[in-house]
Structures
1.
Amino acid sequence: MAKRIDVSGLSAFYGAHKAIDDISMTVEPRSVTAFIGPSGCGKSTFLRTLNRMHEVTPGGRVEGKVLLDDENLYGPGVDPVSVRRTVGMVFQRPNPFPTMSIYENVVAGVRLNGGRLRKAELDAVVEKSLKGANLWKEVKDRLNKPGAGLSGGQQQRLCIARAIAVEPQVLLMDEPCSALDPISTLAIEDLIGELKERFTIVIVTHNMQQAARVSDRTAFFNLAGVGQPGKLVEIDDTERIFSNPSVQATEDYISGRFG
Amino acid sequence: MDITPATAATPPPLPGGSQPAPAEQSKAAARAGDRIFLALSRGSGILLLVIMAAIAVFLTVRAASALSHNEGNFFTTFEWNANANPPVFGIAVLAFGTIVSSLIAMLIAVPVAIGIALFISHYAPRKLAAPLSYVIDLLAAVPSIVYGLWGALFLVPHLTGLYGWLNDYLGWTGIFAYHDGAARSLFTIGILLAIMILPIVTSVSREVFLQAPKMHEEAALALGATRWEVIRMSVLPFGRSGIISASMLGLGRALGETMAVATVLSPSFEIGKSLLDPGGGTFAQNIASSFKESGEIGKDALIASGLVLFVLTLLVNGAARMIIARRKEYTA
């Protein structure tokens, strides 16, 4: 199920502008890695290079290597579409498909990946994924209602259910709680703790308490100045980053001296 | 690390007197600019209703006078002799011709227009998309009489080949049977109308597709959707009501198109078995062709047919609105 991510020498560009510069890191399978750093430091951009979503942006371009176990996602002949089928993503704002019911939302990716499944198989996928996203109890009686009718927190868990329904190797989360209230945030954080048993999880967050609560490893990103590319300052065990980081800038950021 | 959800502290109650008094608010609403704008917008709204009502009343009154003289059945008679004594006229042929030619136009134009719109909004490189949409918009600026001339002088002589081909392969259905002759049929009209409504359907659809929320497209992409699957999952469902509105705008133009049809069609008051048979007519074409030579009753009879077209267009629009409204629950 879960795979190791090995990034080496990765830079990403928007047209001529270099957004992130020469990043290398390893993400262990079945762990949660949090990306923190000030706005514009490129942590979201970096996250989007991990499932080849960066190049969807006009002018988006990537140099370097991302190995998923031993397969280079940027190797020649690798289809970005199949990369995105193995590396799932959850976005900042909950984005269930508004024209689809809860049920159809969950199976949307499965229908793409697996083609035609029998109804019973789909039912099983829906139940398993919604249970996996801690949403089953709340929606099991209204699976055919529109997904957009749920609350924000429920919608985000629906999106997580949709992402894990295709059984990805890695789950990327781009500030998944920033549009949610504290209670929904807590529900998602609990969920992340459960999901890491099955998936490799990478989460971008602006909330440092959240990074401290949910992650095993934390990566701190920073940029030298406006217009400069973002860089990885350090990555270490979360406990170390928050108690005794090896770089002064990390400590300054965490203790709120800047950013 | 302790869990402390970052809740914003409740703001302290405002010191007394800082809230605007109701009197102040109503005074603000009564400013001259607001009053003028209110009057202008309300007046425009009322004016629209008045114009609509005036047209309806005019059409109904004049139509009623013609209908009281009609010796034939207005709905089923296959002839138009409104100037004869006694006058005999019926709209059967016109209704058939109008609806059939417009449907053919829709069947051809809507899929092509959606294809062009998707190409411009989601496939074409930016450098190509801008000039292409400009050219499409330009098509809408061509006067309809020019389309008519092009249709009569170019399309008609060049379509006989297609007609023969249709006859060879689909002639057995009856509706595509073709016997030699000029291609001045409802089918040709349908093709011409399709070209004429293409720009409006394309540009409205394109605008809607461009507004499809990025976040839903990304949601589909992140699930491993191909470009077409992204369009199918996020763009088309979002654009559905827009496509319907665009088609209805196009249909409205096709139903009412006058000069181009009058230039190309050789009108006759019979309904051919085949769509490729020359002849037939449409409401607008018949009014344009017969108006000059019409007497008092003849003109009123044409107005009666215009009233039917008016109602037909209203029905089409109403149906479109119903289709859009039925999908409301799902369009967030």
Note: The interface with chain A takes residues 1, 3-7, 126, 213, 215-216, 218-226, 229, 233-234, 237-238, 240, 327, 329-332 of chain B (CB under 8 Å).
2.
Amino acid sequence: MKSVIKHRAILRYFLASLTFILLLTSQLSAQTGDPEKGKGLFNANCAACHKLDKKLIGPPLEGISEKRDREWLHAWIKDNNALRASGDADAIAIFDEYSGMAMQAFPQLSDQDIDDILAYTDNKPQATPASGGGVATAASLGIDSLEVVKGKNIFNANCAACHKLDAKLVGPALANIADKRSSEWLHAWIKDNAALRASGDADAIAIFEEYNGSPMTAFPQLSDEDINAIIAYTSHADILEPKAAVAGAEDSNIAKLPASTAWITYLVLFVFALIALWVYFMSNNEFLKLVTTIALLITVAYFGYAGLMGIGVDQGYKPLQPIAFSHKIHAGDNKIDCEYCHSSAKHSKTSGIPSVNVCMNCHKGIAEYNGPVTSDKDKAFYDGEIQKIYDAIGWDSEKLAYIEGYEQKPIQWVRIHNLPDFAYFNHSQHVTAGGIKCQTCHGPVETMEEVEQFSPLTMGWCIECHTTTEVKVENNAYYAKIHEELSKKYGVEKVTVAQMGGKECGKCHY
Amino acid sequence: MASNKKYWKSVEELNENSSIVEKLKQNEFVEEIPTDQFLGDKETLEASSTSRRDFLKYVGFTTAAASLAACEGPVIKSIPYVVKPDDITPGVPDYYATSIADGYDFANILVKVREGRPIKIEQNKLAGTSGTTNARVQASVLSLYDDNRLKGPKANGEATDWATLDKEVVAKLNELKATNQSIVILTGTCSSPSTRKLVEEFSAMYGNVEHVVYDAVSESATLDAFEAMYGERALPEYDFSKAETIVSIGADFLADWQGGGYEAGYAKSRVPKNGKMSKHIQFESNMTLTGGNADKRYMVKPSEQIQVLLNVYNAIIGGGSAKETSVNEGVEQAVKQLKAAGTKGVLVTGIKDKNAQLLALAINKALNSEVMDIVATKNIRKGSDAKVAELLANMKAGKVGALITNNTNPVYTLPNGAEFAEALKKVSLSIAFATTEDETASAAQYVVAVPHYLEAWGDVSIKKGEFGLMQPTIQPLFNTRQFQDTLLKWTGSSQSYYDHLKGFWKSSILGGTSWNTALHDGYYKVGATVERVANEVDLAAAANGLASSIKSSELELSLYTKVGLGDGKMANNPWLQELPDPITRTSWDNYLVISRADAEAKGLKNWTVSNGAMNGDMVNVTVGGVTLEKVPVYIQPGQAPGSVGLALGYGRKAAVQKEMQIGVNAYPLFQNFKDVQEVTIEKVGGVHEFACIQLQHTLMGRDEIIRETTLEDFINKPKEDWNPEPKISYEHQEANLEEVDLWDKFDDSWGVKFNMSIDMATCIGCAACVIACHAENNVPVVGKDEIRKSRDMHWLRIDRYYSSDMTVERGREEGIYGSGEFFESQTHPSDNPDVTFQPVMCQHCNHAPCETVCPVAATSHGKQGQNHMAYNRCIGTRYCANNCPYKVRRFNWFKYFDNNEFDYNMNNDLGRMVLNPDVVVRSRGVMEKCSLCIQMTQATILQAKKEGRPVKDGEFQTACSNACSTGAIVFGNVNDEESKVAHLKEDKRTFHLLDFVGTQPNVFYQLDIRNTNEA
């Protein structure tokens, strides 16, 4: 109960603010700038520190022109230091609020550019005009948005396995189903469609036959309220859309910030180089020359050795894959277990790249992407990637059926972890027998948009782990006797992999 | 050791002045690095236009180019299935039960399949003796990936498609049917019940159809004899495990005699139990595998073998007087032993004569032998020589309308193959079903490409009342269709053979058992219940007939088959070509084996050249007007004087890669289906180069590597007499080995510790383990030239030692002990030597000499008892091989894969499919050796870990122990006191190779026992 109240409050606040912003800004933005251009500029210049709806490094910028006057904004963006220096109270307050961290100045932005950006920040909700309209009508039509939310939850729990709103899945698309069928009919159908058919209802029978006589599950457990909520959701699902869109406006541009310390290294190197040159060409101090020579030799040897040791080590290898498969979306956002797709990891030496039929377990139903998007990877991009799976296996996403006689095209992934032939590695040994988490070697894959080689995969790296890792002997009768003998021999409670023989050459090289 | 015998592997070793033997003893790598060849030739050097500066430029450029090229790693693709089959987990092997029935070899087997590729053949232990595998069955998986296989159907030499072929053939068949012309189906032995039914249906449809069965090396005589006596054309089964006395007259029953498969039973009778073991007496002309295993072997010319049989027959049944032979004493012994053994005695003979086989059957019947089973008979040889001869005559006379051949190659295997090919032209419709475009297929109008047995459905009944199923283990590689499917098509059926097979099994074989169970097991036993009453056969007439058939000649030729190539079906299989013959230790060849006496008389010689390889003279061999030219001569100790031998199956040309078109085709001498022929030989000029490895890998003159004793000593004398503990001299005192040791002690009492036991009493030298090791460990094929340079790569070799039967005791009795005469009598190779087989692989020493000398620690000791070899660490100094007392390390002189110089299976994509993905393919310049199949032991341990249970005894296996059908090789965890190998280690027959060296190997041997008891 408590959570519902909380939800209600948040939602009301949210919808209200959205409506408010929308109504106000839609008038202003039209005259002052081009929101499309503004979006590009925003992403290029501001998005590293600002988001529209959330505080990032700087404050959220949505509707900022309502808070500050335009002139002030122009001045602040172009050179906020100067503004502060001029003694502007607001400017100083912001500066203090953000712990004295100055914002970068953007003198290169023209007035028009800034207007465009402001148009974008003000106009943001209009990026999805339908939702904007939806909100406006929702409020005006007096739809109980709470009921819609409730309906969504019930829909997802009960209906979504077979129905989508906008497309046919196992059953028909349900968006605006209330326009097609009467409420009573829907109630009767959902609760017990077999009974409805038995009663001789023509519509019911027609649907049954259209779907090749596969009956829909009956839902007698749903109350009339529940069903009303579902119907409300199917009719007005769009009012919930903006939330997703706004929440999705996060950007990964932070990662693109230039490494600010690199120049220090170059400077130091440059200074050293100058000193060395001076020693050799200007100084007559023989001792200094000797010392410099030795230092140079040691440096060259050190870097040379490090360089040579790195040959063949492909840590960070992140090849372009034929499908922009995001582990972040699958394993991170949707929390799919690693071994759901890489199912052979627990049985076999190879973890196994999932075959396309594994993808289809979910993607039969998920034909389009509805998650957060970024500027370079929009919805169309992701949908295109999903389409690649269908192209590989021959799935007709319109008819929701496999195309008969389709010549399947295997997906040619690029292998990231390339262990040389002479090293034998077995996943199941580590995953099943050792109980090691995938992330131990593969890193935080669930946060990776594109997977890269996280570990060096050098022998030293293997050995180090084998030396320190204790064997998981609990509840494994295989180890019972061996562990007893070994712990006596080494006088330890826990035996490491190395003590068990995990450092012997022939265990991995054969 | 115990008997103070002298053992030798090559006649060359008996020559005290041989510099080569001395050199080989001291130096494993005989050939100097030929630096002189390019440095010594001053003229060439000076004439070269490449100056030193240029050379340096090239070197610099190459280095730079190589480093630049190495900067970017290759992009490796990883392509998963689109739809993964449920039963495949990549990286985990599946095993399918199937059967091989290629007309020569028959067995119920298991096939190891990785990601849809069959890579290894294993025994199907459910099927008992029908489930054992020989070297050829083990190697048959490679023939699946033979690039010379037919890739689609052909009509008159042109590729065609199935629809056209079916249409044309059916039209012609109907034409023939309309005019009632004879249609003949000629096949190899077809022991498939469902196929026989299909042939019947085909016959019913096309009227005048005859099914003729032709075996290249037939057992027609035995089949006819058994039919005469017991009313069915079948082969009796023998269970030698029940035998106390085995008398064999020319029967090589441990190899291919009557289809083979007897070694498992035989081996069971060769280990003393309660002071008893079987006594095996062999009369033969060629030195065979069976003769090598016999307790007593007599050299008898083929013509005299008949007399030996007659004498035994007379002594046991006939009562006639014995005629003088050169082995009277042997015959006497044989008769006594047989009589003493009674129902536990058995006589077998390889004489291909109906009368001889009748007498053998009669003798066993008279003995009431338990060993011979006339109820559960064998179905694996059905060929009828008479019918084949009749067919040929009919073809010549133009009386045959159509000839359909399947699984047979008469143009190659008939002595008058050319005549057959000529006669085939008179047949209006000739169709050959074949896997390769062999001699017969190239002569036929239509060639129907059939799949390899690993791609096909089928069934087989090896023994009466026992059935095996054949199932595909891979998608067909080429556009092939099996014989049965084609027959169904031609009889107008729309059924697939799979449905037919399933239906047939359900209705005729399975009873209530489920099809899936039968398919899973691959073997289904109903049991044979036949009442057999022996017919009255006029044995006296048979004996008389046999006596009158004796036709002695000055030189008699016995044609035989080798354990490698058999009848030549798999001539294009490089594993089998490279497999050294267990007796001659020669690979890549066939040759005329001849006795020393005959060779000396004809001025024929074998000699060893400076690099340790063997050369020999050549002769022209003439039989009945047919001459084979330039046949190399191999002087074989133990060959009966007045006899020579030549192996069949070689010299095939059609659909055989150039490297393997080797040896001479002896089938033209196999006239009238007789394997014994009167022969004349004539020395011709020229020298033949053998790829013989018998001189290589000598053991630094340490002859005590072999140990054997007699049954009598084994029972009556203390162990110290015949299997003493090693003693060494230390500070002028005799000391036990443990007292003096260079190495530190190493605690291996916990966990797993592998040991391997090899029983020399039951090892018959069949070489199945050598091929199994080849397949499991990706051992490369190196070719004839490299073998000649002693660069063979076999991780497991089977050493064959000769020794004379002169013992210390006998020497003392005869008063020649200690004299030169004693030495002479022990070593004269013309004497009939005893033969001992000893499989030798890396001994996995606990105190390994190889480990201490490796400068880069590439070879190291594992806690589990395996001596590890890290190929990636090896830099190829070969110190280890030099320091190994057992000479088991193999050096990769070349890159043997992807190299046109070694154009064998590892040089093409198809052939590489047989590689085991769990074992790395070694590159040039590294040492390799037996790992005790660490990939298998690790997999077993992992399986147990995953299932959370200790490893059970018998789970640990190696490729060789798995393949050993006699159970001579036992592998396991010696720290498990209950394990079989731990018990064997405590056995009093146990010894280590060269134990006095102190290497403490983890491989140990059980010494050989000869039953010299006389009745």
Note: Residues 1-11, 14-31, 125-141, 242-258 of chain A have pLDDT under 50 and may be disordered.
